[in-house]
């Protein structure tokens, strides 16, 4: 069973127009200053192409973006990741998959896209194969997931 995903809300000067939405996610056009910046798909990883690509958790969200210029990708990814986390505060991973297959030109674009995603705060995790595609997965995790208790000699609750 999929955990329903709430619709994202974007802070000014950003806005979004929902094109389609279900409990598993949907598609939104992302706007800034009156112009369309990108088409964004937010989807529960359990309901999409990544469902068997890694040990997917019920609250993980995949972000797909199309039509974003290289100049807009960094800022728009940051805004979309923040909106995804607000749509589900229990989300442990926001996943951004970059297509790695294709001709040399496509691979060069993939390298630039990965660099932009890293500049937006995502970290590269792993390459995976899903039917028909080779993907590099990058994730953004909230601090409560990545923080480490440095007192390794202390067992919590004792």
Provide an overview of this structure.
With about 160 residues, the chain is of the alpha+beta class. It is built from 3 helices and 7 strands. It has helices at about 70-85, 105-120, 145; strands spanning about 15-20, 25-30, 35-45, 60-65, 95-100, 125-130, 135-140. A 7-stranded mixed sheet has the order 1-2-3-4-5-7-6, with helices on one face. Helix 1 (about 70-85) links the parallel strand 4 and strand 5. Helix 1 packs across helix 2 (about 105-120). The longest helix has 18 residues, at about 70-85. It is globular and about 55 Å long. The chain starts with 13 loop residues before the first strand and ends in a 12-residue tail after the last helix. The model has no long low-confidence stretch (mean pLDDT about 90).
Summarize the structure.
By secondary structure, the chain is α+β, with helices and mostly antiparallel strands.
What's the SSE blueprint?
Elements lengths: L13 E9 L2 E8 L2 E10 L16 E6 L3 H18 L6 E6 L4 H16 L3 E8 L2 E8 L2 H4 L12
Parallel strand pairs: 4-5
Antiparallel strand pairs: 1-2, 2-3, 3-4, 5-7, 6-7
Helix pairs in contact: 1-2
**Mean pLDDT score, rounded?**
89
- Globular, elongated, flat, extended or rod-shaped: what is the shape? globular
Specify the helix fraction band: 10-25%
Instruction: Classify the secondary structure makeup into a structural class.
Output: alpha+beta
Gap between N and C termini, in Å?
A: 36 Å
Strand content: 25-35%
Flag low-confidence runs.
none
Total count of strands: 7
- Helix tally equals 3
Helix-strand sequence: EEEEHEHEEH
- Main sheet attributes: strand count, strand direction, barrel closure: 7 strands, mixed
**Biggest sheet, strands in spatial order?**
1-2-3-4-5-7-6
Cα-atom Rg, whole angstroms?
16 Å
């Amino acid at each position: 069973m999929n955990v329903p995903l709430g619709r994202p809300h974007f802070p000014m000067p950003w806005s979004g127009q929902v094109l389609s939405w279900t409990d598993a996610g949907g598609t939104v056009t992302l706007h800034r200053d009156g112009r369309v910046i990108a088409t964004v798909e937010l989807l529960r990883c359990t309901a999409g192409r990544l469902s068997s690509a890694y040990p997917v958790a019920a609250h993980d969200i995949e972000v797909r973006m199309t039509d974003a210029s290289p100049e807009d990708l960094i800022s728009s990814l940051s805004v979309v990741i923040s909106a995804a986390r607000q749509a589900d505060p229990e989300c442990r991973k926001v996943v951004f998959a970059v297509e790695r297959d294709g001709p040399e030109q496509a691979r060069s674009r993939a390298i630039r896209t990965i660099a932009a995603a890293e500049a937006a705060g995502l970290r590269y995790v792993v390459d995976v194969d899903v039917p028909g595609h080779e993907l590099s997965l990058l994730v953004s995790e909230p601090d409560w997931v990545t923080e480490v208790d440095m007192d390794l000699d202390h067992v919590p609750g004792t």
